[in-house]
Write a structure and sequence with these properties.
The complex is a heterodimer of chains A (116) and B (117). Chain A contains no helices and eleven strands. In chain A, the strands form two sheets. In chain A, strands 2, 4, 5, 6, 9, 10 and 11 form a seven-stranded mixed sheet that branches. In chain A, strand 7 and strand 8 form a beta hairpin. Chain A is globular. Chain B is an all-beta fold and 117 residues long. In chain B, strand 5 and strand 6 form a beta hairpin. Chain B starts with a strand and ends with a strand. In chain B, 37% of the residues are buried. The mean pLDDT of chain B is 94. The chains are: A mainly beta (116), B mainly beta (117).
Chain lengths: 116, 117
């Protein structure tokens, strides 16, 4: 069964509003979580890395103020897209590793965001 | 920084045939892991196979095997007896071993594999 759960799987929001996507590790402590963005027919691009209890590290070119990432507990990380615009519409997917990662990386099911 | 290159945007083969997807990478690291992920239309990322760089033996998982050439920095995926359910995007990915999993995966651009009936 899934060990990383993402919610919601699909969300539609109006331009200018904010939307939150959750990523939960179900049966392990996710010390590190990653957020990726995937445009249609393209690869996954790492947006940011979050460690529990500390600020997220963003990749170059990713707007920190637009994509707020919080990793307040060992089982939950959230991505908030603030003041969303149509160009933010995309597929967002999280992944997680634990303290004894054993080269195992678990992915969530992904979330489709459509900004209208 | 690491780069992963998949030079085949799309491939199409007949069911039951064998197909090889290519992947090359560039890194200065000596300790790393390589992965092949399958992404079907559902978009769920499914781990197909992984290879530790320190292992000389090529990884195999049932119909899936890799040809890992460390010196050439090549990591190809062979799918034997291909099935309709193998139709998907396939991504090659890299991660540093020394990072303890704290680095994100670096993905190639992907290969769209189509299995024809």
């Amino acid at each position: 069964g899934a060990v990383v759960s993402q919610h919601p799987s699909r969300v539609i929001c109006k331009s200018g509003t904010s939307v939150k996507i959750e990523c939960r590790s179900l049966d392990f402590q996710a010390t590190t979580m990653f957020w990726y963005r995937q445009f249609p027919k393209q690869s996954l691009m790492l947006m940011a890395t979050s460690n529990e209890g500390s600020k997220a590290t963003y990749e170059q070119g990713v707007e920190k103020d637009k994509f707020l990432i919080n990793h307040a507990s060992l089982t939950l990380s959230t991505l908030t897209v603030t003041s969303a615009h149509p160009e933010d519409s995309s597929f967002y997917i999280c992944s997680a590793t634990g303290p004894f990662w054993g080269n195992t990386i678990y992915f969530g099911e992904g979330s489709w965001l459509t900004v209208v | 920084a690491q780069t992963v290159t998949q030079s085949q945007p799309e491939m199409s083969v007949q069911e039951a045939e064998t197909v090889t997807l290519s992947c090359t990478y560039d890194t200065s690291e000596n300790n790393y892991y390589l992965f092949w992920y399958k992404q079907p239309p559902s978009r769920q990322m499914i781990l197909v196979i992984r290879q530790e760089a320190y292992k000389q033996q090529n990884a195999t998982e049932n119909r899936f095997s890799v040809n890992f050439q460390k010196a050439a920095k090549s990591f190809s995926l062979k799918i034997s007896d291909s099935q309709l359910g193998d139709t998907a995007m396939y991504f090659c990915a890299f991660i540093r071993g020394s990072g303890g999993g704290a680095d994100g995966l670096t993905f190639g651009k992907g290969t769209h594999l189509i299995i024809q009936p």
